[in-house]
Structures are given as C-alpha cells and as structure tokens.
Specification:
Layout lengths: L3 E6 L4 E6 L2 E7 L19 E9 L7 E4 L2 E6 L2 H6 L6 E10 L23 E5 L14 E4 H8 L7 E5 L1
Parallel strand pairs: 1-10, 8-9
Antiparallel strand pairs: 1-2, 2-3, 4-7, 4-10, 5-6, 5-7, 7-8
C-alpha cells in the first residue's frame, strides 16, 4: 500500500498531499516572511527532508488556540485577535516536524549552530482565517487555514515524510 507524503513548495506557497505519483490535494499556505533557512532563531522555514514527529490537537475546535503544544482554553475570535495583534496564533492542529538530515535540519551544522527543526518547534499548523495564505508571513512554521490543516491532520500519521523545498 502506498503511503502519503507531504511536499511544501516555499516558492509557490503550497502544500501538497501526495500518494505515489498522485497529488491528492494542494493547499495554499504561508511559510516564513524571512524566507528559507535552518538556523535557530532565524524565523525561517527549514528546507529538506522531514517527517511528522507528532500530531497535536485532535478533537479540538477549529479555532482552539494552542501554546507550547497545549490548548490554552481560548477560542480565537476577532476580539481576542484585537487584544493581541502581534501574537503568532497557533490554532486547531499541529503537525510537529522532525528533520531527517543531520547537519541540515537535524542536530547542529558543521559550525556547531543548531539547525534542528524539532528543537526549533517547526510545525504545520492552523492560523486565523484573517491571515493571508499564499504569501510568506509566518515566523518559520507552515501556516494553513484551519479547515485545511484539520483535513490534512486526518489523512496523515506520525512518520509521514515531509519535503520542504524552494
């Protein structure tokens, strides 16, 4: 049986769910406003081979807020958004990514700097519907519409390969 894989195209700002040679679904996303890069603290989207390390948020409402990978008890609304306009809202579901390439997106690079996607808390996650998709605006993660990330979340399992490229 062919398994799913996820492909994120930073240039096109799309995420595709693929099985074998068949693209099952393509979603509009938002990657990092600072572009691609692997360094810790860069607020850039890491490239290369990853895998879904963990799925977080199953059963939460589509607008449930998460912080530190835990539900806060808040349900996103325009009012909450107005109270914290600079907050990087993580909503509904998280697919936590783990890098698979030592020195590129896992562990440290040759200079000893952290490039580890999992330690950088790089996710595919939901975001408020007022946020623009198709434009790089995140702090390093791959943002999706809540309905889209829930759809994706329901189709993949931990261990699903993820390729992020330009």
């Amino acid at each position: 049986m062919l398994k799913h894989r996820i492909e994120v195209d930073i240039t096109q700002q799309t995420l595709s769910l693929v099985r074998g040679d068949e693209c099952l679904q393509t979603y509009s996303v938002s990657t990092a406003k600072n572009g691609a890069g692997e360094a810790e603290g860069s607020e850039r989207t890491p490239r290369g081979k990853h895998r879904v390390a963990a799925k977080i948020g199953g059963g939460l409402s589509p607008a449930a807020a998460l912080q530190g990978r835990r539900p806060t008890g808040e349900v996103w609304s325009q009012t909450l958004h107005a109270e914290a306009p600079e907050r990087d809202w993580i909503l509904s579901r998280i697919l936590w990514l783990e890098g698979c390439e030592n020195g590129i997106n896992r562990g440290s690079n040759k200079s000893g700097h952290c490039v580890d996607s999992m330690r950088r808390y790089i996710y595919i996650h939901g975001t408020p519907d007022c946020e623009t998709m198709g434009e790089p605006k995140s702090h390093g993660c791959v943002r999706m519409r809540n309905s889209d990330v829930i759809d994706l979340y329901n189709q993949v399992e931990p261990g699903t390969p993820v390729l992020i490229y330009e």
